[in-house]
Recover the amino acids of this structure.
């Protein structure tokens, strides 16, 4: 046995039941009840494995708070609103959003906050960050959040939902699996038989992919839950994640540890295992249940449309030169392209009940300015 209990358990499962699909391996890495990455640690920040947009700058959460206010007004300013965050990290984004919303007392008084979080370590951090917030509760799943008009925020939530990987061979598409090589190490393989009629469901772009191409897909269950909720109970959801605008072939399964890429098969449960989000697939699933889709647009465009440049200028005006430099760096990180920028890699998708015909920052008719 090694000092990696999850690796040992995965190998034992493979030896007992045969090669394991990528989706099951990813699920165990992240959500194993004892050794899963997301059930046992705080992965965020400089001392963790990665940094999310709310940790880069307060501006991110503040602007999402103002976006929430805009949607609330479009909903007719209901006297009761559930503000739900999926995968809320340390509670930083919610704290920043609520600080911005305090300037609008009728909305602030209407809010009931719901944090969907399974990690007990992060729940504790969120509780400390939001200790002064009234009407707040925690849930393991959005299924547990009571009904009612809702605005749902999901920043870097969908990228950790398990993916299926399919590999194209001459005789069809085969499920990609994890198996054990001759040296006792984990390696990728494929199921011996193709998945029947899998190509019938594929977008034309993927159907034309070459032999050896990898196609990733996630079940539609989670996005359909959000879409059905806002369709039936009034409200909107905002999804922000890294990924691609249209469905295409490509292997994006990856691991991040200590802010650098790692081998996803080497230390299961000890690194963040993710894959890019297919925004075309999300939008299609939401539309299929009758919700209205807005976007997607790049994160850089979205943040600029809802006023991040104006907010940065206001903060810098009151700041010391050193802090002003930090704000400028954070602004570039959130909005610009390139290796260190999140502006084009991250996309933003809105989903709402059909009556809401446009959402701030996501309307095609909206100028990409600082309005």
């Amino acid at each position: 046995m090694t000092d990696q209990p999850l690796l040992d358990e995965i190998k034992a499962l493979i030896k007992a039941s045969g090669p394991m699909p990528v989706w099951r391996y990813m699920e165990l890495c992240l959500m194993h009840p004892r050794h899963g990455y997301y059930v046992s640690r705080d992965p965020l920040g400089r001392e963790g494995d990665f940094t999310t947009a709310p940790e880069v700058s307060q501006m991110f959460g503040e602007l999402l708070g103002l976006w929430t206010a805009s949607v609330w007004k479009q909903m007719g300013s209901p006297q009761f609103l559930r503000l739900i965050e999926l995968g809320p990290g340390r509670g930083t984004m919610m704290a920043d959003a609520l600080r911005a919303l305090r300037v609008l007392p009728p909305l602030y008084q209407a809010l009931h906050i719901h944090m969907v979080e399974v990690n007990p370590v992060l729940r504790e951090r969120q509780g400390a960050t939001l200790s002064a917030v009234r009407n707040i509760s925690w849930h393991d799943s959005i299924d547990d959040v009571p009904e009612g008009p809702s605005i749902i925020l999901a920043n870097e939530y969908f990228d950790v939902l398990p993916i299926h990987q399919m590999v194209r061979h001459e005789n069809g598409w085969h499920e990609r699996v994890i198996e054990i090589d001759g040296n006792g190490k984990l390696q990728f393989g494929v199921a011996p038989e193709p998945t029947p009629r899998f190509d019938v469901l594929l977008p034309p772009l993927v159907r034309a992919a070459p032999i050896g191409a990898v196609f990733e897909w996630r079940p539609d269950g989670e996005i359909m839950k959000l879409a059905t909720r806002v369709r039936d109970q009034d409200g909107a959801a905002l999804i922000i994640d890294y990924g691609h605008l249209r469905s295409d072939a490509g292997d994006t399964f990856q691991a991040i540890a200590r802010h650098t890429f790692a081998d996803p098969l080497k230390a299961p449960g000890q690194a963040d295992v993710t894959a890019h989000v297919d925004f075309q697939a999300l939008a299609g699933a939401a539309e299929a249940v009758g919700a209205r889709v807005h976007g997607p647009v790049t994160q850089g465009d979205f943040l600029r449309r809802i006023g991040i440049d104006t907010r940065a200028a206001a903060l810098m005006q009151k700041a010391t030169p050193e802090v002003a430099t930090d704000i400028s760096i954070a602004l570039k990180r959130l909005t610009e392209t390139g290796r260190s920028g999140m502006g084009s890699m991250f996309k933003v998708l809105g989903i709402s009940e059909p009556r809401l015909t446009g959402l701030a920052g996501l309307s095609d008719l909206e100028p990409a300015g600082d309005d």
The chain has two domains: 5-31+163-217, 53-162+219-250+272-352. DSSP finds 13 helices and 16 strands in the chain.
